[in-house]
Structures are given as structure tokens and as C-alpha cells.
Amino acid sequence: MSDEHKAALAEGRNQGRAVRRYLEALDAHKPKRGRKRTTDSMQKRLARIEVELPTADPLKRLQLIQERLDLQNELEQANTKVDLTELENEFVRAAADYSQRKGISYAAWRELGVEAAVLKRAGVSRSS
Asked: Which residues contact 74 (CB under 8 A, 6 or more apart)?
């Protein structure tokens, strides 16, 4: 295998990695459907759970404990801001070549949730 071939394979792996990491981050942080819960409403529900726990039967207590854990986790995530800037920049550098090599259309990227502005920065156009 020639050095050029090895370099091309490495570049393809790097592009694929950048695209995958960005798409996974988009997927993990996309807005959920329905009415959003506020921090205040989650705190109120946690307080209600603490009141209900001592008198609940074992099965209900189990459900309340799980709900409490879920709410605590959701509160932690709500207070953590996710910065996708670096992943987005890596995606922008890789997306045009990756799209061309893999035959990925603009419409496919958009349907997956990649913003039009990001695709424009990447050089992926509607006609490509």
C-alpha cells in the first residue's frame, strides 16, 4: 500500500470521525417534543416526591425513587450548557469532502437536523 493510499485512508477515517461525533452530539442535544419542564417545576416535583416517599407502599416507593433519580439527572443536564463549537468546526472542515465521497445530499443532512448555516459554512449546497 502506497503512502498516498495510507494518507487517503487516514483522511477518510478522520472525516468520518468528525461527522459521526457532530451528528451524535446533535442527536443527544436535540429538543424534546412537548412542553418543556422548567427548573422550578422539577424542583416542586422533587419536593412532592420527598413528601410522598415515607407513606408510599414499596412498589410506589420504587417508582418515586426512580422518578427522583431521573429528575435529579435532568436538572443536572439542564444546568450544563453544551458547547458544540469545536465539533461543529470539525464537521465543517470534513462535511463537503465526506458528502461528495459518500454521495450524501444536502436534503439528507437537513433531514438529520444539521442546520442550513452549518452546511453553508461547510460548502455543502442544495445542488451538491
From this structure: 37, 42
- Write the pLDDT tens digit of every residue in 56-75: 999 999 999 999 999 999 88
Q: How far apart are CA 4 and CA 32, in angstroms?
A: 45
Instruction: Name the amino acid, one letter, at 86.
Output: E
**Collapsed DSSP state (helix, strand, coil) of residue 38:** coil
Instruction: Give the global pTM.
Output: 0.63
At a CB cut-off of 8 Å and minimum separation 6, what does 25 contact?
Answer: 82, 84, 87
Residue with grid cell 444536502, as numbered in its chain? 106
Torsion of CA 52, 79, 33, 44, to 10 degrees: 20
Half-sphere exposure of residue 52: CA atoms within 13 angstroms, side-chain side: 17
- Interatomic CA distance for residues 109 and 100, integer angstroms: 12
Q: Longest Cα pair distance anywhere in the chain, in angstroms?
A: 72
